Amino acid sequence: MLRYSNKSIFSISDQSVSYILVNTENIKDPKRFTNLLGKVMDDVATRASNGVSGKKFATREADFSALQTLYGLAQCTPDLTTSDCNTCLRDAISSFPDCCDGRRGGRVLFPSCNVRYETYPFYATPTPPPSSG
Predict the structure, then answer these.
(1) Which top-rank group of organisms is this from (predicted)?
(2) What is the SS3 assignment for 81?
(3) Domain locations in the chain as residue ranges
C-alpha cells in the first residue's frame, strides 16, 4: 500500500475514503458461509490489531467444504495503536454484508487498514528459511 498526503498522516486512523472490490461469483450455502466468514474475520482482525510482531497483519484459512477453503486477511498501517487498528478493521469488516453478501470474495480498503476474503489463495504463506547444516 502506498499513501501520500499534504498533511500529517502518521498515527492517525483514517476511514474517510473506502474502496470496495467484490468477487461477482456467488457462494453456495451463503448462511453457513457468512457464519464462517464472521469467525475468520474476527480472528484476523484481533490478531492483526494486536500486532505482536509489529506488523499489524494477519491471515487465516478455514475449510468451508471438503473442496473449498476460505482465506481471510486483515492489515493496518503499523503506526496505528492497537485500539485504532481494531476500530478500523471492524469498520471495514462491517461493510461486507452490504457489498459482498453471498459472494465468493470481497475487499474493503481504507487509507489506514484493509480486509479481504476469497475462496482462493491470494496471499503467499511465508516459508521458513533453509536451515544451515
Answers:
(1) Eukaryota
(2) coil
(3) 19-118
Q: Using only C-alpha atoms, what is the Rg of the chain?
A: 16
C-alpha cell at 119: 475462496
Nearest to 23 by CA among 35, 33, 11, 10: 33
- Find all residues with CB under 8 Å of 133, minimum gap 6, and list them: none
Question: Which of 53, 68, 66 is CA-nearest to residue 117?
Answer: 68
What is the DSSP code (8-state) at residue 53?
Answer: T
CATH architecture of 19-118: 2-Layer Sandwich (3.30)
The answer to whether the CB of 91 falls within 8 A of the CB of 56 is no
The string of pLDDT tens digits covering residues 20-59 is: 999 999 999 999 999 999 999 999 999 999 987 778 999 9
Q: Please give the model's pTM, rounded to 2 decimal places.
A: 0.87
